[in-house]
Each structure stands twice: as structure tokens, then as C-alpha cells.
Amino acid sequence: MSIPFPANSSPAAAQPEAAAHGLVGPEQFTFLADMIPQLVWITDNAGFHTYFNQRWIEFTGYTLADSVGPDTWNNLLHPDDRTRARQVWGHSLATGDDYSIEYRFKARDGSYRWFLGQALPRCAADGQIIAWFGTCTDIQEQRQLREQLEVAYSDLEAKVVFRTLDLEREVATLRQQAGEQQV
Questions:
Q1: pLDDT tens-digit profile of 53-100?
Q2: Which of 3, 12, 121, 172 could form a disulfide with 129 if both were Cys (CB 3.0 to 4.6 A apart)?
Q3: 132 vs 183, which has greater pLDDT?
Q4: Mapping DSSP to helix (H, G, I), strand (E, B) and coil, where does residue 59 land?
Q5: What are phi and psi of 11, to 5 degrees?
Q6: What is the distance between the alpha carbons of residues 115 and 76, in angstroms, rounded to a whole number?
Q7: pLDDT value, residue 22
Q8: Exposed/middle/buried for 144, CB within 10 Å: 0-12, 13-18, 19+?
Q9: Which residues fall within 8 angstroms of residue 40, CB to CB, at 6 or more apart?
Q10: Model pTM score
Q11: What distance in Å separates the CA atoms of residue 167 and residue 170, rounded to the nearest whole number?
């Protein structure tokens, strides 16, 4: 899904007619981006990061100057997630497909937390991608709950298998005893 954008506009430009087009000004955008609980980011059409919100700075400890560019993003990912993240992002950049991935980001204290990264392309009137607008939503608790459920399910499954084996053994013993009584 691409988000249309007037051909004679840019997301950073403050324009008097912005309100008439349903657009917000830069101050309103910054307020909104800093208020929501997600890490917010923008890239150009080639994937070069040009904006991060205040929550990004607070979470990573990186200033805006340290964060912009093509590599900072991937360097803050857990090493096990980097290759997959590059592949998924590369696919979105090449095709214009929506971006969606779960990965772990490094916090300023050195710990990692799970995030759901999502982005949509912003397109000019001619359909060409001019920017990507994205968010990263902290899903650490959901991931932990999912892992706990998977462990509980595995434990339950093992208990069912062992109980089934016990019942089969009891049935075999009863059949053997029944067969001995008939003799």
C-alpha cells in the first residue's frame, strides 16, 4: 500500500495549502512522532535514513547525526537478525512492497528488545516512491508470552504422550490378566 503525496510537495516542506490537502505541518508531525510510543523513522526512496523521532534517540542513545545514513540501523540489530533484515528491507526497496519484520534492537544499555518494524512507501502523483515512513513497535512482552506459551504447549504435549504410554501399558497389563483368568 503506498501513500499518495502531492507532486509539488515534500514531506519536510511547510506549505500554506497543506491543511487544504489534509497534510500536517512539520511542527505537528514532530509532535505526533514524538508522542506515540513507537520509534518513528523516515528514509529517502533508496533507503537512506533521514529522520528518527525522540524515542529513537532515547532508546538507542544515538543522536540524529549519528543515526542517519544506511548502516546505523543494521548495526543496532542483533547479529542473528541482520542478514534477514537486510533481505526484507532490500525486497521492499526493490519492489515497493510494504515492509514488515520482527527483529531485536540494541538499547542504549546494551540489552536487546524485540520490535515489529513496519513501513509504507510515500509516492508522488506519478507513483514513484519518494520516501518510506516507518515505525518500530516494542513487542518484547508479546514475544516473551509467545515463548512461554510454546514451552507450556511442549510440556503439555510431553505429559499427554507419557500419560498415553502409561494408559497403553495399563491396558496391556489388564488384557494379560484377563487372558490368564480365562485359562
A1: 999 999 999 888 888 766 777 789 999 999 999 999 999 999 999 999
A2: 121
A3: 132
A4: helix
A5: -65, -25
A6: 12
A7: 67
A8: exposed
A9: 33, 51, 52, 53, 55, 56, 133, 134, 135
A10: 0.70
A11: 5
